[in-house]
Design brief:
Elements lengths: L5 E4 L13 H7 L4 E5 L8 H13 L3 E5 L11 H21 L4 E3 L2 E2 L5 H22 L6 E3 L7 E2 L2 H10 L6 E3 H7 L7 H16 L8 E5 L1 E5 L2 E6 L11 H10 L3 E5 L4 H17 L1
Parallel strand pairs: 1-12, 2-3, 3-4, 4-6, 8-9, 9-12
Antiparallel strand pairs: 5-7, 10-11
Helix pairs in contact: 2-3, 3-4, 5-7, 8-9
């Protein structure tokens, strides 16, 4: 039996006007089944609200994830920046326990003066420190999901994300296909390119038992420059890549259990478009 792909918005839907703790009622009512809570400008949710949001997700059978703060740089040159980044991830893990988030998405860092290898090693050292602190605090129910990044100055190409997830328990990837497309200057043209990405991912993680566990994805149309991502675009703007339908076809054909978070400016509207295309493929 082929696994079902889930779809949902990055943040509160455009058409939702209520309190975030009730957002999954709306998401379920319109026919979606995933939601990514955005803590991109800081983890501000309190425990009581987090527990309510988690319960709201459970009763509606919504797969919930969380996007951690943008102000994280685990390859920072300055130790104080590194420490603040670790603290923000601790705050994210604590909140993720409250809301029952199955993934905590974050951007790993920037190369700055370092080579990609040096930046990756500095990042992994910070992650080791993070995990020690979480263990000491008794925070245990978390899965961090480092994201493939869209700017060529950022740590977060596919190889680096696989390396991080190979190296640590409680880590699984977030594959942002638009980011890979942008930092690769338009490298995703069709099904063969998606096969290449997903095969590399599966082979990299299969040996540690993470080969085809739930795959967390982001998708949008994206505009890019030589430096990488520039701007997100809606699905109807087909002059921008990457293509959607070949991705869905490959995920279905290869049996991935995936969640796709829509990051276009139309959020839930485009998430519903994605789901309709997906259903046509299944029925096809």
């Amino acid at each position: 039996m082929k696994k079902r792909i889930k779809f949902g918005p990055a943040g509160n839907p455009i058409g939702f006007n209520g309190q975030t703790v009730n957002v999954c009622d709306y998401i379920s009512d319109i026919g979606l089944d995933a939601y990514e809570y955005q803590a991109t400008y800081g983890v501000k949710i309190q425990k009581q609200s987090g527990l309510k949001l988690g319960e709201n997700a459970r009763v509606n059978d919504i797969r919930i994830s969380m996007h951690g703060p943008y102000y994280i740089n685990l390859s920072a040159q300055k130790d104080d920046v590194l420490e603040r980044s670790i603290e923000r991830l601790i705050q994210s893990a604590r909140a993720a326990e409250w809301i029952g988030a199955y993934r905590i998405v974050f951007h790993p860092g920037f190369y700055t003066k370092y080579t990609p290898e040096q930046a990756l090693n500095r990042c992994k050292g910070a992650i080791s420190e993070l995990l020690e602190k979480l263990d000491a605090l008794g925070i245990k129910k978390f899965t961090f999901a480092p994201e493939t990044t869209g700017k060529r100055s950022q740590l977060g190409n596919l190889d680096a994300i696989i390396d991080i997830c190979q190296s640590f328990d409680h880590f699984s990837p977030t594959i942002d296909f638009a980011h890979l497309h942008a930092r690769g200057r338009g490298c995703i043209k069709g099904a063969d390119d998606y096969h290449r990405i997903l095969t590399k991912l599966e082979e990299g993680l299969d040996g540690i038992g993470k080969g085809k566990e739930a795959l967390h994805c982001h998708f949008t149309r994206i505009e890019y420059t030589d430096a990488g991502e520039r701007k997100h675009h809606v699905l109807m703007e087909t002059e921008y890549g990457p293509p959607l339908e070949p991705l869905l076809e490959v995920l279905v054909d290869c049996g991935w259990d995936a969640t796709i978070i829509c990051e276009t400016p139309l959020l839930e509207q485009d998430a519903l478009v994605m789901k309709r295309i997906y259903k046509k493929i299944l029925d096809g």
